[in-house]
Amino acid sequence: MLAVFNKDECNDNTVSLKIIDSRIYPNPNSGQFILELTSNKKAKLKIRIHNNLGQVLMTEDISVTEETFKREYSFDNASKGIYYVQILYGCDIVSIDKMILE
Asked: Is residue 95 assigned to a domain?
């Protein structure tokens, strides 16, 4: 999938951020899921969730403080299928996780 970024929002130091661990805990019955991630430093990130057709369902700016982040999300009218959670830092995608709702 191609992504178009606003170059004004790019960081020059994107290589210094590393996502050490990211986990997704979906609840297929409710469309809710928990996202946990750990990075090597505090950072402002963007979370983007899209379906397998590339349609963006949600975008959110987050701040990872003390190198950890945990939040519960919910999709309204979530249907079965494959979803992707992208973590972006500046103009770089630093992590992509696949989530399956059955």
From this structure: yes
